[in-house]
Amino acid sequence: MAETGRKPAVPAQPAPGATESERTAPASPDAAASPTAQPAGAAREPLLEVDNVTLRFGGVVALDQVNFTLYKGEILGLIGPNGAGKTTCFNAMTGIYQPTEGEIRFRGSRLSGKKRHQITKMGMARTFQNIRLFPEMTALENVQVGADTHHKTSVISALFRLPRHWREERDGREKAEQLLEFVGIRDRIDEVARNLSYGEQRRLEIARALATEPVLLCLDEPAAGFNPAEKEELLQLIRQIRDRGVTVLLIEHDMRLVMGVTDRIVVLEFGKKIAEGLPAEVREDHRVIAAYLGVPEDAA
Ligand SMILES: Nc1ncnc2c1ncn2[C@@H]1O[C@H](COP(=O)(O)OP(=O)(O)O)[C@@H](O)[C@H]1O
Ligand SMILES: [Mg+2]
């Protein structure tokens, strides 16, 4: 990852999870267990509320009365064995599927009936378990497509470089450059996405998601297929993203990675929430241990 002295690239907006004084407040002794623990007495502000959500695909109950709240400024891990419903949860949050029952609220607003692009505009961005980039477009262009959610130009005018796009392009390029630098692939800016290494593509997806200026970034198994060194770098990147004010929801199968970076963890199994708590609590939970028993760490 690039370590440079350049000015930070993200986010453009102030930290959604904290006031200036909260962000700069020294950690209290209680903060040891959780790097984002708020100062004593500070109310935790809900950012995303998953309220009794059930989602069925025919006979398959992918989510079964799932409840959890994500608070501003935290890194929440969403874990569970393969098929537990983690990706379905993201899909319900981002407007790809509507819950069969229950509701999801983001920044206090119900998401039911909202389209994907509306939810993106509300400040939620995600990456995909299976990388979804435009393979023939450069790294820069892939990020600019993300940034265009906040511009008047559509993806189409960006793709075909229509006039309104030209006016916004200079700003867009600078921002995209900063984002690529932030995720550590500034040197690959003009390379087409399909020529990037797997790890670079994962970073590019994160840069593209950040280009929408989210308050909540949802990462679906961002470290899948990474070696230990790459995982460690990703962990640092996730911390940096949070430190710049973006709340993070992290789906991850690698227990070690999750334990090292999250403030709290929600565990799903067969669509049901089976545990929730601090990483140390969840690691000791017998239901979690049983759920993971016999499942290779990197099975996805
Ligand atoms: N579009 C779909 N149609 C039918 N079943 C689905 C669909 N998406 C997910 N499922 C099912 O829902 C369950 C949860 O899947 P998923 O959310 O992908 O799990 P995870 O991400 O935790 O591995 C699985 O049984 C899966 O087969
Ligand atoms: Mg999944």
UniProtKB/TrEMBL annotation:
Residue ranges annotated for the ABC transporter domain, each copy included: 48-295
Pfam family, one: BCA_ABC_TP_C
Keyword line: ATP-binding, Nucleotide-binding, Transport
Low complexity: compositionally biased ranges: 25-41
Membrane-traversing stretches: none
GO cellular component terms, A-Z: plasma membrane
Any single GO BP term: L-valine import across plasma membrane
Gene Ontology terms for molecular function: ATP binding; ATP hydrolysis activity; L-isoleucine transmembrane transporter activity; L-phenylalanine transmembrane transporter activity; L-valine transmembrane transporter activity
Keyword ATP-binding: yes
Protein name, per record: Branched-chain amino acid transport system ATP-binding protein
Residue runs in coiled coils: none
Presence of keyword 4Fe-4S: no
Superkingdom, natural source: Bacteria
